[in-house]
Specification:
By secondary structure, this protein is an alpha+beta fold. It has 4 helices and 8 strands; from the N terminus they run E-H-E-E-H-E-E-H-E-E-H-E.
Amino acid sequence: MKKRVTLTFPKNAIQMPVTYRLAKDFNVAANIIRAQVAPNQIGKLVVELSGDIDALEAAIDWMRSRDIAVSTLSREILIDEETCVHCGLCTGVCPTEALSLEPTSFKLNFTRSRCIVCEQCIPTCPVQAITTNL
C-alpha cells in the first residue's frame, strides 16, 4: 500500500534519521517528493510511504510519538483553463512530466495520474493559473 503524507518536524527532531528508521524498523520505504529542512528550524517533508498497511500505521504512530506531525495528502493540482496562457513554463519544472505541451496545438496537457503534487509548478506559473484544491 502507498500513502502520501506531509511530515512536519519540530526543531529538535531535524537531525533524526527518520527515513532510515522507517526502512529498518518498519520495512516502510519513503520516497521523498519535496523537502524543506534546515538546522534549528521547523522542517517539512512530503513523502510517499509504501509498505504493508499495518507497518504503515505503526510507522505513522512512531513518528507521531516523536512529535513529528503527520498529515495525509488528499490534495490535487488544479489548472484554471480560462486563465492559462499555455506558455509551457510549468512543463520545465514538472519532475513526472504530468504537465506537457501538445506538439501540434501547443496547448497544455495535464495527466493527473502522473502528478505527485510536488507543487513546483505553482510558483512557476506567470498568470497563477495553477493551484491546489486545499
